[in-house]
C-alpha cells in the first residue's frame, strides 16, 4: 500500500532539518519557484530548448540550467552559466530542466518535460532531482503552489 505524501510547511525553510528527503524537496521547490522562474522569465522560449508535441499540438519549451549537490540532489542555484558565481559552478555539477511553456493555461507552473544531467550525480542525487520534478509537476497539474 502506497503511503500518503507528507506535506511540509515551507514558509520557514531554515526550520527544516538539513538532510531529510522532505527538507531537500521543499528547498528545491522553493529554489524553483524563485530563481528558476526568474531565469525562465528572462529566457527566450523555443530557442535551444525547441518544441514538444503533445496531443497533436506543438508547445514551445524553455530551458532552466541549475547546479545541484552531486550526492544529495539539493539545488544550489539556477542561471545561465556565466551568471552563476564561480564558487558554485566549480563545485556543483549542472543539470537542465526542459519546461513546456503554455500548457498551464495561464498557470506559471508549467510542467517539466525532461531533466538532462551528466554522469556527475550519484544515484541518490538523480533520484532526488526526479522526485523534485514529480512534485513540481503534480503541483503544476493541480494549479497549486503548495509543495
How would you sum up this structure, described in words?
The chain has helices at about 20-40, 85-90, 125-140; strands spanning about 50-55, 55-70, 75-80, 95-100, 110-115. It has about 150 residues and is α+β, with helices and mostly antiparallel strands. Strands 1, 2, 3, 4 and 5 form a 5-stranded antiparallel beta sheet that branches. A hairpin with a 2-residue loop joins strand 1 (about 50-55) and strand 2 (about 55-70). The longest helix is centred in the N-terminal third of the chain and has 22 residues, at about 20-40. The two termini are about 20 Å apart.
In brief, what are we looking at here?
By secondary structure, the chain is an alpha+beta fold. Helices cover 31% and strands 22% of the residues.
Largest sheet: 5 strands, antiparallel
* Helix-strand category: alpha+beta
Give the termini separation: 22 Å
The helix tally amounts to: 3
Shape descriptor: globular
Question: Helices and strands, in N-to-C order?
Answer: HEEEHEEH
Mean pLDDT: 78
Quote the beta fraction.
Answer: 15-25%
* Number of extended strands: 5
Query: How big is the Rg?
Result: 15 Å
Query: Unreliable runs, pLDDT <50, ≥5 residues?
Result: 1-13, 142-147
User: How much helix is in the residues?
Assistant: 25-40%
Amino acid at each position: 500500500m502506497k503511503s500518503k505524501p507528507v506535506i511540509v510547511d515551507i514558509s520557514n525553510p531554515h526550520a527544516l532539518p538539513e538532510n531529510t528527503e522532505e527538507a531537500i524537496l521543499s528547498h528545491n521547490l522553493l529554489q524553483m519557484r524563485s530563481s528558476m522562474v526568474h531565469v525562465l522569465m528572462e529566457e527566450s522560449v523555443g530557442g535551444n530548448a525547441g518544441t514538444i508535441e503533445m496531443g497533436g499540438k506543438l508547445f514551445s519549451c524553455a530551458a532552466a540550467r541549475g547546479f545541484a549537490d552531486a550526492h544529495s540532489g539539493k539545488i544550489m542555484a539556477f542561471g545561465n552559466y556565466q551568471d552563476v558565481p564561480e564558487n558554485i559552478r566549480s563545485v556543483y555539477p549542472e543539470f537542465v530542466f526542459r519546461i513546456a511553456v503554455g500548457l498551464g493555461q495561464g498557470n506559471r507552473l508549467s510542467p517539466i518535460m525532461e531533466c538532462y544531467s551528466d554522469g556527475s550525480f550519484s544515484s541518490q542525487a538523480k533520484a532526488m532531482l526526479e522526485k523534485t520534478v514529480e512534485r513540481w509537476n503534480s503541483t503544476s497539474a493541480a494549479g497549486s503552489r503548495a509543495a
